[in-house]
Design a protein that fits this description.
mainly alpha; 3 helices
């Protein structure tokens, strides 16, 4: 079910959304569709992150072990 609402956008956000609507759909008349797409992607991706963070961890490591791993990985990336 579609709900109609009014939101107040800062000018830079409005301009971004208009440009995005034109880029995606060739018209600024699809502004609602762009807003819905971006909100849906952002909100649902955020839920996935929260679920991932709240799941039981399958591996354990200390801060010292993690830092050592990070340094080794950084060295490999620089090579």
């Amino acid at each position: 079910m579609v709900k109609r609402t009014t939101i107040l956008l800062d000018e830079d956000l409005y301009e971004y959304l208009i440009r995005e609507s034109i880029r995606r759909h060739g018209s600024s008349k699809k502004l609602s569709q762009v807003v819905n797409e971006l909100l849906r992607k952002t909100l649902f991706d955020g839920e996935k992150v929260v679920q991932l963070l709240s799941k039981e961890k399958v591996a354990r490591t200390t801060a010292k072990e993690f830092e050592e791993f990070r340094r080794k990985l950084s060295r490999r990336m620089e090579e």
